[in-house]
């Protein structure tokens, strides 16, 4: 799979400056967390596992995101955190996942979390669903082909003035930290395509 070789090569060469807009400050002390960026071979080529957060959460309610969450005392590593959270949220079996590597630590100002993205290959995909309805509303395997399709690309605009890259896919508007991270990933992998950045979607949450 050529796309998988692209992902592996990217993880091997990645540098913190590749994610300069989202890096955690060197002196920042926040809660450590991890997310799982899980690639699989789907019907249209590579896809990514995306969750829609529960609409009843106090923060980030209803927002699309990668599976993940805060590190627990029993987690040996942040890889353990990412795999545990993905299993709890989506029923992904960790034995079916091959970890490729880690991306630089990123910062989510709204929550104060320091996030380590764990990039992995889902070598034996299985059924997924909202395993924890209190945390997750729905689970989606989103084709990279849909993410890079210029027709699905937008910029989002928040009432507080924040603006960033987003994606309208699988009935979701992927925006915020996750939208920015996917935009960075596609660009660094050389998969992105030119798109009309004048298309703006307003968000309210």
Describe the structure.
This protein is an alpha+beta fold. Helices cover 21% and strands 35% of the residues. Strands 1, 2, 3, 4, 5, 6, 7 and 8 form an eight-stranded mixed sheet that branches. β10 (163-169) and β11 form a beta hairpin.
Strand content: 25-35%
Whole-Å distance between the termini? Answer: 39 Å
- Poorly predicted regions are none
H/E element string? HEEEEHEEEEHEEEHE
Rg result: 16 Å
Proportion of residues in helical segments: 10-25%
Work out the oligomeric state of the chains in this entry.
Answer: single chain
Shape: globular
Number of helices: 4
Structural topology:
Layout: H1 2-13, E1 31-42, E2 45-53, E3 64-65, E4 68-70, H2 78-90, E5 97-102, E6 106-108, E7 113-122, E8 136-143, H3 144-148, E9 153-157, E10 163-169, E11 172-174, H4 176-189, E12 200-202
Parallel strand pairs: 1-7, 9-12
Antiparallel strand pairs: 1-2, 1-4, 2-3, 2-8, 5-7, 6-7, 9-10, 10-11
Q: Top keywords for this entry?
A:
21% helix; eight-stranded mixed sheet; 12 strands; 205 residues; globular; alpha+beta; 4 helices
In short:
By secondary structure, the protein is α+β, with helices and mostly antiparallel strands.
